[in-house]
Amino acid sequence: MAQLRQEVEPGEAGLDPKALDRLDGYLARFVDEGRLPGCLVALARGGRVAHLTTYGLRDVAAGLPVESDTVWRIYSMTKPVTAVAVLQLVEEGRLSLDDPLERHLPAFAGPRVYVGGSGDDVTTRPAAGPVLLRHLLTHTAGLTFGFYHSHPVDALYRAAGLASSVPPGADLAETTDVYARLPLQFDPGTQWNYSVASNVLGRVVEVVSGQPLDVFFSERILGPLGMTDTRFQVSREQAGRLAELYGQTDDEAAIEPIPGLPLDGRPRFLSGSGGLVSAAYDWHRFMELLRRRGELDGTRLLSPATVDLMTRNHLPGGADLRSYGSRPAHDEPGNDGVGFGFNVSVVVDPARTQAPSGLGTFGWSGAATTTFWVDPGRDLTFQFMTQLRPRTSLRIYPELRRLVHEAVTG
Description:
The protein is an alpha+beta fold. The chain is built from 11 helices and 17 strands.
């Protein structure tokens, strides 16, 4: 088990120490006011960690502090790992981005699109074309989440037992079969809707590789990168380092512990959408893999061209996420000027974003208010870890971008 450590002074990395103090102070106020339990923030340039701060508690009741080796539920930050797994199989010629999904998961043959009605009176029509793997990677397949309440298909997901994206007790294969029986919201490739698509991709990885998703991740990504704290379950050694999960109280004025998915044994459902835990050292390694365009410490997992493709905007017509409303589960990508690649958001027009961002900056966030981004133009990586599932957005992410942007001097 390795710990993240600061490797260089901020000034040597072209960062303003006073601006970093403002960043730390901003986050400390959230903790001191009882709006966050504790947090970790790390900023690196050229691969060297130039700023690392821990503040507050990983377990408030027990009085245990956040430390650099604290383990966090990263939820949707699992999705870029799933994208890397799929792209590895693409590079090996075992998949194509233009493969119809039904080639690997026959239950998805003959997809249908919602037309009208509700409950047992739903009407549908044949989709204009098949769901392709690239549609799943870009969330343009027409799938959705049951916890949305903005489209009749969302309600169909809930009625099918998918309020939390997985039927109680089901595994990944059984869950994706349920998805396949439900209509799409729109013709594949025509719109963007953040969805269960990465769970479907995880099942594709299992079918094509012949390995359970956790084994594939371990052998092909996490092991080669030395990410020993990143997994679908928490070991006995990790259990004492796992941060407690919190939610907002009814009046949103304070926080309280809430249950998360059980992590003390291998889960039956291996979620490619949001099942991993990780720690700061591990996530620094994963960001470095992407910043270095597929290679780290002599280990190459993807070609530079493939990472470039992953981190390019693929939205229909070159649109940004604002064109599709504010439906995403996280506020970070819901900006003007932000597009979407393969399971990462991508800044396509910095002048139109709600917070200062470099062109081509990419990353993603998790439901417990974790986030990361890679800014290739500034040779910079950033991660923020905490464990709060808010009822409403805290609007932390835009301020983090502004404060980090202000700290870069060279």
